[in-house]
Design a protein that fits this description.
487 residues; seven-stranded antiparallel sheet; binds nicotinic acid; binds adenosine-5'-triphosphate; six-stranded parallel sheet; 17 helices; TIM Barrel; binds 1-O-pyrophosphono-5-O-phosphono-alpha-D-ribofuranose; globular
Length: 487
C-alpha cells in the first residue's frame, strides 16, 4: 500500500457503485443525457428549528478541474474496468450546471439545497463527495449556530482540532463553525487557509513543564504581550488565580492581562469567585474564559447559575456534532432527459409519505412579509413558476394539506444562486466574514419561535399547488404501473 501517488485526486472519492452505474449508462449510450439531482435532508439536526448551510466552497474546489489522473485510471484498470470505459473516463470533466444556496443560508428539511444538472454519468459520480461535504459542514455550522445562540453576545473560540474526526474535519469543521457564528479558531492552518482569526491560551503542560504557575506565567509573558493564564492546574482559587494576579501586578503595563482560563471544576462557582478576586485586585477588564466539554446545554445552564464567563472555548462537542453525529442529507434524481430530448420528471416512492421525493426541476423562494420583514415560510415551486410576480400566494403543508394560508404583501426571495454554468464557475465566493454576516442576516428574518433551541416551532416549507399536483400525478402514474406489473 502506498499513499505516495504524486497525482492523487478527489476523483475516486466516490462510492464504487457510482462508477459502476456510470459505466452502465455509458455502455447503454445514455451517459450524456441531461439529469437533474437535488441535495436535501429530511430532518433537521439536533431537533433544531433551522439549519445553517455550509459546504459550497469545498464543492467549488472539488468540481473545479475535476478529472481522473493517470494513477486513478491505473487503479481502476487494476480493479477490472475495461480500456474502452477508461478511455471515456480519461476525458471526464464536470460540464454541468450547479445552483446552490449560499453558505450561511438558513435552510430547512425537504428543500433542495444544491441542484446538479449535468450529463447523467457525471451527476452520478459526484454524488458521494457532494453529500460528504454538505452533510458534515452543514451539521457543524448548525451546531455552532445553536452554541452561539446560547452564548448571545459573548465571544466563542473553537478548540476542536484534537478531537475532530481527523484533519479534514478539523479544518472544514472550524470553517463551518465560523460561518455559524464562532469568533475564532485555535487551528492555525485554518487561519492561514481561510482567513479565520486565530486565538488561544496555553495548556496545563506548560505549567507542568516549569513545575509552578508563577514561573510559567512569567516565562510565557516574556514573549507574549497578550496573556490569558490557565489557572486550574493545581488549585484554581488558592493557587491559579492568585498567581495570575501576582504576575500581572509585577509586569504591569508590559503585558495585557486579557484573561484567565478555567478548564475544570464547578465553572459557575469558580467563575464567580475568580471574578470577585480579579475585581478586588483592580483587574475589572480581565476576562474569564471557560472550557471543558461545553455545549449549548451546559452554557445555558451555567448562565442560569449566574456564571461570570465572558469567553467560551468549545471543542469536542462542536466539532464531532456530539449529540447527532450525522446529517442524513440525500441526493435524488428529479428529472431526466428521454430519447426524444425532452425532460421527464421522476419520483421515488416510499411507504413513508415524508420519504416520497418531489419530482421536477424546482426553485425555492423565501416568502418574506413586506411589513415586518419576517419570513412566512419557504415555497417550493416548479422552475417555470414565478411567485415573485404573484399578488396572493396560497401556502399549504405538503403532507397535511388542510394546513394552509394565503399570503399577500410579500417579497419572494429566490434562495439559490447559479454557481457553475456549463462546467464554468460563474460565482464569486464571499469572504468568510461575509458568509458569517449572511448567516446572521438570514436568522434575523426568522421569528424567535423557530430559533429557540428547545422544542422550536416547525417552519413552513410548502409546495406550490402546481408542484404538488405534479407530485400527485407522478405518484398515480407509478402506482398504476406497479398494478399493471402485478397483473
Ligand atoms: N456549574 C456547572 N453546572 C453544570 N455543569 C458544569 C458546571 N461546571 C462544570 N460543568 C460541566 O460539568 C462537566 C464536569 O466534568 P468532569 O466531571 O470531568 O469534571 P472536571 O471538572 O473536568 O474534573 P477534572 O478535574 O477531572 O478535569 C463538564 O462538562 C463541565 O463543562
Ligand atoms: O473540552 P473541549 O470542549 O473538547 O475543548 C478542548 C479541550 O482541549 C483541552 O484539553 P486537553 O485535556 O486536551 O489539554 P490540556 O492539557 O491543555 O487541558 C482544553 O483544555 C479543553 O478542555
Ligand atoms: O488555546 C487554548 O486554550 C486551547 C486550544 C486548543 C484546545 N484547548 C485549548
Amino acid at each position: 500500500m502506498s499513499f505516495n501517488y504524486r497525482d492523487d485526486s478527489l476523483m475516486l472519492h466516490t462510492d464504487l457503485y457510482q462508477i459502476n452505474m456510470a459505466e452502465t449508462y455509458w455502455e447503454d449510450g445514455v451517459s450524456e443525457r441531461n439529469a437533474v439531482f437535488e441535495v436535501y435532508f429530511r430532518k433537521l439536526p439536533f431537533n433544531n428549528g433551522y439549519a445553517v448551510f455550509a459546504g459550497l466552497e469545498r464543492i467549488i474546489q472539488y468540481l473545479k478541474g475535476l478529472h481522473f489522473t493517470e494513477s486513478d485510471l491505473e487503479y481502476l484498470r487494476e480493479e477490472g474496468f475495461k480500456e474502452d470505459f477508461l478511455e471515456y473516463l480519461k476525458d471526464f470533466r464536470f460540464t454541468g450546471n450547479i445552483r446552490s444556496v449560499e453558505e450561511g443560508e438558513v435552510v430547512f428539511a425537504n428543500e433542495p439545497l444544491v441542484r446538479v444538472e449535468a450529463p447523467l454519468a457525471q451527476a452520478q459520480i459526484i454524488e458521494t463527495a457532494l453529500l460528504n461535504i454538505v452533510n458534515y459542514q452543514t451539521l457543524i455550522a448548525t451546531k455552532a449556530s445553536r452554541i452561539k445562540h446560547a452564548i448571545g453576545e459573548g465571544v466563542v473560540m473553537e478548540f476542536g482540532s484534537r478531537r475532530a474526526q481527523e484533519m479534514d474535519a478539523a479544518l472544514w469543521g472550524t470553517r463551518a463553525a465560523f460561518i455559524g457564528g464562532f469568533s475564532s479558531t485555535s487551528n492555525v492552518r485554518a487561519g492561514k487557509l481561510f482567513g479565520i482569526p486565530v486565538s488561544g491560551t496555553h495548556a496545563h503542560s506548560m505549567i507542568q513543564a516549569y513545575h509552578d504557575e508563577y514561573t510559567a506565567f512569567h516565562k510565557y509573558a516574556r514573549r507574549h504581550k497578550d496573556c490569558v493564564f490557565l489557572v486550574d492546574t493545581y488549585d484554581t482559587l488558592r493557587s491559579g488565580v492568585p498567581n495570575a494576579i501576582k504576575v500581572a501586578k509585577e509586569l504591569g503595563d508590559s503585558i495585557n492581562f486579557i484573561g484567565i482560563r478555567l478548564d475544570s471544576g464547578d465553572l459557575a462557582y469558580l467563575s464567580k469567585a475568580a471574578r470577585k478576586m480579579l475585581d478586588e485586585a483592580g483587574f475589572t477588564e480581565t476576562k474569564i474564559v471557560a472550557s471543558n466539554d461545553l455545549d449549548e446545554y451546559t452554557i445555558i445552564n451555567l448562565k442560569a447559575q449566574g456564571a461570570q464567563i465572558d469567553v467560551w472555548g468549545i471543542g469536542t462537542k462542536l466539532i464531532t456534532a456530539f449529540d447527532q453525529p450525522a446529517l442524513g442529507g440525500v441526493y435524488k434524481l428529479v428529472s431526466i432527459e428521454d430519447e426524444a430530448g425532452n425532460m421527464q420528471d421522476t419520483i421515488k416512492i416510499s411507504g413513508n409519505p415524508e420519504k416520497v421525493t418531489t419530482p421536477g426541476i424546482k426553485r425555492v423562494y423565501r416568502i418574506i412579509n413586506s411589513m415586518n420583514h419576517k419570513s412566512e415560510g419557504d415555497y417550493i415551486c416548479l422552475e417555470t413558476e414565478h411567485p415573485e410576480e404573484e399578488e396572493r400566494l396560497k401556502m399549504f403543508h405538503p403532507t397535511h394539506t388542510y394546513i394552509s394560508k394565503f399570503v399577500t404583501n410579500f417579497h419572494a426571495k429566490d434562495i439559490h444562486q447559479d454557481i457553475f454554468k456549463n462546467g464554468e464557475l460563474i460565482y464569486k465566493s464571499p469572504t468568510i466574514y461575509e458568509a458569517q454576516k449572511f448567516a446572521e442576516e438570514n436568522l434575523d428574518v426568522l421569528w424567535d419561535e423557530y430559533k429557540r433551541s428547545l422544542n422550536p416551532e416547525e417552519y413552513p416549507v410548502d409546495l406550490s399547488p402546481l408542484c404538488w399536483e405534479n407530485k400527485m400525478s407522478h405518484l398515480e402514474m407509478v402506482k398504476s404501473k406497479v398494478k399493471n406489473t402485478q397483473k
